[in-house]
Specification:
The protein has helices at 10-38, 41-63, 68-87, 91-113, 120-123, 131-158, 161-182, 184-189, 194-199. By secondary structure, it is mostly helical. α1 runs antiparallel to α2, α3 (68-87) runs antiparallel to α4 (91-113) and α4 runs antiparallel to α6 (131-158). The longest helix is centred in the N-terminal third of the chain and has 29 residues, at 10-38. The chain starts with 9 loop residues before the first helix and ends with a helix.
């Protein structure tokens, strides 16, 4: 028979893969929050670093590659977490989200200045868009990353460490999910159907 098992179909594997990726991404933050709650931010930072490295190893094993953005974030977690522990100064781990998000925003804005939508190499395998769609999506994410950088600065400078950690887990993650869902209309509007039409 020519029918394939449902489990081998891309449509059936895409959703579990995305769920696994999401759980891997938030796992270190959960560890960070739990250990900080039981001990303090320095123990939490050490656990955060260990969990981040473990997630990168697991991601490499499961998916055969390391996505660029989690890899860059992981490097900054280890670097700024190390400074936090060595110098016993929580300032570094608190500034890490600001620097990472500002860096992502700067890279995307710079790419657009040179006529390149740098989100395309990252997400072209996930969905197909016409070029105007890639430009708009890249611009929106660039502004959103900048917003996250500024928001992190406001929160860590204005509230307690515990509030900041909880906000990272229960504030930032929902904000990112809401923003991503809000782009569905754009993805549909600029969907590139040329490949599908050619296949027909």
């Amino acid at each position: 028979m020519s029918e394939q098992p449902a489990s081998s179909s891309p449509e059936h594997t895409a959703e579990p893969n995305q769920l696994v990726k999401f759980l891997l991404e938030i796992g270190p933050l959960i560890v960070f929050a739990l250990v900080n709650w039981q001990a303090d931010i320095f123990w939490g930072t050490g656990a955060f670093m260990a969990a981040t490295v473990a997630v990168l190893v697991v991601s490499r094993s499961l998916f055969g590659r390391l996505p660029i953005m989690p890899l860059v974030t992981g490097v900054f977690v280890v670097a700024f977490g190390g400074l936090t522990l060595v110098l016993q100064d929580e300032l570094f781990i608190k500034m890490k989200p600001t620097i990472v998000n500002a860096l992502f925003a700067a890279i995307l804005f710079t790419g657009l200045l040179f006529g390149r939508s740098l989100l395309r190499p990252l997400f072209d395998a996930a969905f197909r868009l016409r070029e105007p769609g890639w430009r708009i999506l890249t611009l929106r994410w660039a502004w959103f990353f900048l917003f996250l950088a500024l928001l992190n600065e406001v929160v860590w400078r204005s509230f307690s460490t515990s509030f900041w950690i909880n906000f990272k887990l229960f504030g930032i993650i929902p904000l990112v999910m809401i923003f991503a869902i809000a782009q569905v209309g754009l993805l549909k509007r600029y969907e590139d159907r040329s490949g599908a039409q050619a296949a027909e």
